[in-house]
Amino acid sequence: MASVHESLYFNPMLTNGVVHANVFGVRDWVTPHKMALLVLLSELGRAGAQLGLLERRRLNRLLLPLLQGPDMALSRLRKAIEECCPHLAGSVHIRLKLMAEGELKDMEQFFDDLSDSFSGTEPEVHKTSVVGLFLRHMILAYNKLSFSQVYKLYTALQQYFQKDEKKNGADENEMELTNPEELDGKMEKEELDGPLREEDIACSGPLSQKQAEYFLSQQASLLKNDETKALAPASLQKELNNLLKFNPDFAEAHYLSYLNSLRVQDVFSSTHSLLHYFDRLILTGAESKSNGDEGYGRSLRYAALNLAALHCRFGHYQQAELALQEAIRIAQESNDHVCLQHCLSWLYILEQKIFDSCVLLEHSVNKSLHFGLPYLASLGIQSLVQQRAFAGKAANKLMDALKDSDLLHWKHSLSELIDISIAQKTAIWRLYGRSTMALQQAQTLLSMNSLEAVNVGVQQNNTESFAVVLCHLAELHAEQGYFAAASEILKHLKERFPPNSQHAQLWMLFDQKIQFERAMNDGRYHVADSLVAGITALNSIEGVYRKAIVLKAQNQMSEAHKLLQKLLIHCQKIKNTEMVISVLLSMAELYWRSSCHTIALPVLLQALALAREYSLQYLASETLLNLAFSQLILGIPEQALNILHMAIEPVLAHGAVLDKGCAMFLVAKCQVASAASYTPQKKIEALESAILNLNEAKTYFAKVDCKEQLRDVLYFQARLFHTLGKTQERNKCAMLFRQLHQELPAHGVPLINAFK
Q1: Terminus of the chain with fewer CB atoms < 10 Å: N or C?
Q2: What is the pLDDT of residue 11?
Q3: Residue 679: how many CB atoms within 10 A of its CB?
C-alpha cells in the first residue's frame, strides 16, 4: 500500500482531553500516553550507566513501537517496561504519580526540564534522532497550547493515572483468588511490535499523522502475511471510518477499507472504497507530484485495471472485460507499456474462462521479460505450467519451466512467488499421482523461512500457497491412515485461517472430503450423505460425484447412473479430465454390479486412454486394476495377473492405503482363480501365497478402519484355510468374520465382489 502523503492532514480536533498542535505542517498531539513516554525517556536518561547492556538493548527495541503506535493503557505500558527493566518501571510510575497528584506547575516544570536533554557538549539525545525528533515535537506542541488546553491536558493526565490505579486495585483482588504461577510470563506472550489489540484502539485518542501511517501500514502488512493477527473486519472498518470522518481525502485509508471489504467478500463496499481511493489520489494531486502531467491519466488507467481485477475476483466477467478495455484504451493513449502488460495478463485470465489459449500468455511472458517485469513474467510462467499440466504435458518439461521461473524468483528475491512455485509443484505431483514427490515439496515449503521482513509474532508464509500445501499434506496423511495427524494439520489450518478468512474454503473442502472418506470406509453411509451438502456448497463437481458414490454404496444404481451421466457430460464440456476418468471408473463399477461386464470394458478402455494421454499415471494404474478385475470376472485370471504385475507397483509406491489393500486383495483373488488348473502341489503353494497377500491386504484395511473390506478378506481367508485343511486358522477367521458381520448391515458376501 502506498505511503501516507505529506499533503494529507488531519482536521483540528480536541476530544476527551487530547490536545493537538500544528508542528511544521505535521499534525501531532500531546496526550497522557505520550507524556508517560516522555517520563520514560527522562528516566532512561537519568539512569545512564546504571542500566546494564541487556536492559538498555531491550528498552531500545521497545521504544520504536511505542513511539510509532497508538496510545495504550498505562497498565500495559508499565508491564512492557517491567519486562525490560523492573526498577525503571517503578521510577516511571512514581514520577507520573507525583505529577498527576501534584499541581499544574509540576507538569509545567517537567516540560521545561525536557529541553536540558539537548544541552551540553555531549547531549543525552541527538536532535535528529528518532527520540530527539519526538521530544522536539512534543515540546513545541506543548508550547503552542493555550492555558485552557494545558489545563485540559493536565485533567486528562489525572484521569489516565486514576484509571490505572483502579484497574490495579481490581487486579490485586483477582490475584488473591488466582494461583500466582498462572500469571507468570503473561506479558511475554504479548509482543508490542506485533499487531494492535482492539482495546488499545478503543482506549486511544485521535491518531496523529505518523500514528495513522503506522496503523495503516501495519494492518495492511498483517492482512497480507497473517490475517488472524489483524483487527477483526468490523473493528478495523470502525477505526477506518473514524479516520475518514475527520479526513475524507485520506486515500490510503480508503485503500485499506477496500482490502478489509475483500476479506468478507463485500462487493459493494470494496468497489466503493476502491473508487474513492483513486478519486482521492487525483483530488490531492499526489500522483501529479510524483509523475508530472501523467499523474492524472495514470490514476485513471490503474483505477480501471484494479476495477477489472475486482470484478474478475467476484466472477463478474462481463463488467471486468469492460473495465479492462477502458484500461487498455487509456494505457495505449499514454504509451504505458507496464500497464499494458498488466492488462494483457488479466486479459488472459478472462479469456481462459471462455477458451484455452496459450498465445496471449506466451506473448505476455515475452513482453514482461523485455520490459523488465520479473513478477509478471514469473506469474505468466506459473499459469502456463498449470495450463500445460492440465493438457497432459510431461512432468519433466513442466519442472524445467518451473526451474527457470525459480531462477527469476531467487534473483529478484520474490518470496511470495517462491512459495507459489513450490505449492504448484506439490499440486502437479499430486495430479500425476506421485504422492512421495508431493510430500517432499510440501515439506520443503513448510521448512522454508520467508524472505520478507515481518514483525515479531507474525506468522510467516501465511498465504494461499501455504494453505494449499497444508491441505495436501492433511489429505496425504489421511490417505495413509494417519487420521490423528491429519486432524492436527486441519486444526492448525483452522487456527491460522479462521472461517471468515479468504483462504478458509480450501481447508473446509479438504476437511469435508476426509470426513466423507472415513464415513464411507466405516460403512456409515448416512453420515457420508449428510456431508455431501457441505462439499457441494464448496465445490459443486466434487459434491455431485460424492453423492453418486453414496447412492452406489446404498445400491440405488439407477439414480447413481443418472447423476454420473450428467456429471460426465459437464466435466467433458469444461475439460476436467481427472474427474472424467473418476466418473468413468465409477460407471464401470455400476455395470459390474448390474452384471453388465461386457459394457464395462469399453468404458474402462476409454478411461485408460485418457489417463495415458494426459500423463495421469496413478489413475492409469487404477484403471488397469479395474481392467484386471473385469478379466477376472470374465474368467481369464491368468491375463488379469499379467496386468496386475504391470499396474501394482505405482499403487504400492504412491497409492492410498485403501487402494493398496484393494490391489493386494485382487491379486489374491486372481491367484486363487488361476490355481484351479494347477497340479495339487502347485495349487497348495498358490493358495498359501494368496493367504500371505490377504494378510497384507488385511493390514491395509485395518489401518483405515474399512470394516466391509476386512469382512470380505476374513471370509476369503476362512475358505482358503478350509481348503488347505487348517482348521484352527479357519475357525479364528470365521470368528472374526462373524463379529464384523454382526456389526455391519446384513447382505450377501459373494466370493468375488466389486474391486472396491
Answers
A1: N
A2: 28
A3: 9
Q: Rounded to an integer, what distance in angstroms lies between the CA atom of residue 173 and that of residue 648?
A: 70
* pLDDT tens by residue, 581-606: 999 999 999 988 888 888 889 999 99
Helix (H) or strand (E) holding 20: strand 19-23
Q: Record the cell numbers describing residue 288, joined without a space.
A: 501529479
Burial class (CB in 10 A: 0-12, 13-18, 19+), 50: exposed
The total number of residues shown for the chain amounts to 756
Q: Cα torsion for 155, 161, 166, 170, to the nearest 10°?
A: 160
Q: Per DSSP, what are the bridge partners of residue 18?
A: 15
| Three-state secondary structure string covering 573-631 | HHCCHHHHHHHHHHHHHHHHHCCCHHHHHHHHHHHHHHHHHCCCHHHHHHHHHHHHHHH
List the chain domain ranges: 32-167
* pLDDT tens-digit map of 333-378: 888 888 888 888 888 888 776 555 677 788 888 888 888 888 888 8
350: its cell numbers: 478472462
Q: Using the Cα atoms of residue 560, residue 566, residue 571 and residue 577 in order, give the sign of their dihedral.
A: positive
The answer to whether 302 and 339 have CB atoms below 8 angstroms apart is: yes
| Distant-in-sequence, close-in-space partners of 612: CB < 8 Å, separation ≥ 6 | 620
DSSP reduced 3-state for 297 = helix
CB burial of residue 122 (10 Å; 0-12, 13-18, 19+): exposed
465 grid coordinates: 500457497
Q: Please give the DSSP secondary-structure letter assigned to residue 166.
A: H
- Burial track 159-190 (b if 16+ CB lie within 10 A, e otherwise): ebbeebeeeeeeeeeeeeeeeeeeeeeebeee
Residue 105, judged by CB atoms within 10 A of its CB (0-12, 13-18, 19+), counts as: exposed
Task: Return the beta strands (E) in 121-195 as ranges.
Answer: none
Instruction: With beta carbons less than 8 A apart as the criterion, state whether 440 and 406 touch.
Output: no
Give one DSSP letter per residue of 104-132, joined into a string. Answer: HHHHHHHHHHHGGGG-SSS-SS-TTSHHH
* Consecutive 10-residue averages of pLDDT for the chain (756 residues): 30 33 48 84 76 80 80 82 81 84 83 74 73 83 85 86 74 49 41 46 57 82 80 88 82 89 88 87 57 59 88 87 89 87 85 67 84 86 87 85 86 84 91 89 81 48 84 93 93 87 89 93 89 93 94 90 94 91 93 84 93 90 91 88 88 90 92 86 90 92 88 91 90 90 62 50
* Dihedral angle, C-alpha 425, 430, 431, 433, nearest 10 °: 130
**Is the distance from CB of 428 to CB of 395 less than 8 angstroms?**
yes
How many CA atoms, within 13 angstroms, populate the side-chain half-sphere of residue 33? 24
Hunting for cell 500495559 — which residue is that?
A: 76
User: Whose CA is closest to 586, among 550, 532, 612, 640?
Assistant: 550
Q: For the beta carbon of residue 221, count every other beta carbon within 10 angstroms.
A: 19
pLDDT of 747: 52
Q: What is the DSSP string of 467-510?
A: HHHHHHHHHHHHHTT-HHHHHHHHHHHHHHS-TTSTTHHHHHHH
What is the spatial distance between Cα 175 and Cα 188, in angstroms, rounded to a whole number?
18
Which of 415, 504, 492 is CA-nearest to residue 454?
Answer: 415
